[in-house]
Every structure is written in structure tokens, then in C-alpha cells.
Amino acid sequence: MYENESFSSSFKRGYRGLPVAIRTLITLNVAVFVLQVVLGIFGRGYSSALIQAFAFYPEWQTALFQPWRLVTYMFLHGGAFHLLFNMLWLWWMGRAVEERLGPRTFTVIYMGAGIGGALLDILFAQIMGFNFVIGASGAVYGIMVAFAMLFPTMPIMLILLPPIQARYVVAGLIALDVLLLGSQDGTARIVHLGGAGIGYLLMRAQIQGTDLSKWMLPVEQFWYRLKGTYQKSKSKPKNKNMYTVSDVEIVDETEQSELDQILEKISEKGYDGLTQEEKKKLFELSKKN
């Protein structure tokens, strides 16, 4: 079907096929890096100014009086390979995590791990040194831990190595960061470890029944207000037949039988176990009021 497809068409199809949260995050990271490169062309000072304005500096005063840095530092990178490896890990492991948990829960884990890693760096900066922190590694580590918890025995193919189970790959990367603590290689390993730890705690909360996706609702409402598209939902009597499926709320009684089958399949195999037709049906139901 795609034998004669051009590279650009194939790229667009693959890009559009990415889950929404991963597609958005990769787009933002690449766009910011392109901006860094363009500013660097005009002079290294411009690129450095961007980093100094939005990177995170591990002091409590920074977190308190310039809290946006806790988020913006994740979208800055020190070079092409720094960006490439972070985005590859995000794509390799993040896709399955987002498809299982949904984009809102995925985003909470990603952002929570990134912010948590930066905050932990404040505690250790007195020992490890004060340096500007940039990069999505802490957030990506949180997603990698989530992947290992969801798919512990999934084989991971690494260069020149046989297939290794996901739990051992992620544990090995974390152990490597622990071993290299204190090395003067410019890598914020405390941020990696903090991101991994927060990712673990958030996944534990999710597994134990906490609906992490609800934490994204105020952000979405704020965004819709900025766009002028926010509509306050009309008050309705509580529907005892309403189900919550990860990030999707469904309140449709007329198709309850088919819905129950989809919900049962999700509980057994996860969202990723649905067919494309079932996913489409679930999406259509989620848009109904």
C-alpha cells in the first residue's frame, strides 16, 4: 500500500501516527533546539542568553521566585546528540506508556518527573555543585521507569547486546547514574535519579487507584480560556452509569453493552490491547455529552 510513498509522505504519516502527548513534546523540544541553533548562528551569546533565561539553577530562590524554570529547562538541550537520545528514549518507551495510560496521565508523569528531578537537585547542589540544568532527561527517566513497571519483561534491543528485559535495562541505567555520581562530565545525574524516583512514585499511585489524569484538567481549562474556547459544562444530575477509563469519561447509556465489553477488555489487556475499531469507538463515545 505504501510501496511508492515518498519520504515526506511517509514521515508525515509516521508523525501523525504518534500519540498526541509524545508528538507534542517532541515537536516542542525540536522547535526549541532549532531556535537555539538559529540564535547560535547570530552569535553564541544569544544562545547562552536563552539558556540563562530559561534553564534551571538549583537554588530554592530560583524555584520560589522563578518557578517557570522548573518546566522550561526540560525543553533546552546542550547539543544535537543530547536532544536525539532523549527523544529516542521518549519515543521508544513512551509510546507504549501513553497508549496504556492515556495522554493526560502520561503528561503528569513526564512533567512530574522533570520537576521532581530539578527540585531534588536543589537538595544536593551543596554537595554536587551549582550548575545550570537543561534537558528532558529527568522527565524521560520517569517515563522509562513507568514503562518498566508496566511492561517489566518486554525485551529491549540494544546495540551489540542480546534482548534484555525492560526492568533490567532501566535498572542498569539508573545504577550507572548512581555509580557516576560526582563525576565531572557535566551530566545532572541527580536530576536523572530524581526523575526516576518521582516516576516510580506516580506510577505506584496510579496502580493503587489514584487518577493522575485529573491533575491535567485545570491546565486544560486554562489553555482553553486563553484560546477563548472554554465552555463551562452545564450542571447535570450525577449519572450512576458513568465510567472513567484512564483519561476518557464516557456517559452513554444507550450503548452500554458495547461499552462494557470495551471496558472489560481494557481491564484485561490495557488500552493498547484494543483494535483500531474499538479505539475509534471509544474515542467517539468520549466526545458525547
UniProtKB/TrEMBL annotation:
The subcellular location is: Membrane
Instruction: Report the protein name in the record.
Output: Membrane associated serine protease, rhomboid family
Bilayer topology: Multi-pass membrane protein
> What sections of the protein cross the membrane?
20-42, 70-93, 105-127, 139-161
Q: Which GO terms describe its molecular function?
A: serine-type endopeptidase activity
One GO biological process term: proteolysis
Q: Which domain of life is it from?
A: Bacteria
Q: Please give the Gene3D superfamilies that the UniProt record associates with this protein.
A: Rhomboid-like
Q: Which GO terms describe its cellular component?
A: membrane
Q: Where is the Peptidase S54 rhomboid domain?
A: 66-203
The segment(s) forming the DUF6576 domain are 254-288
Family membership noted in the UniProt record: Belongs to the peptidase S54 family.
Q: Which Pfam families match?
A: DUF6576, Rhomboid
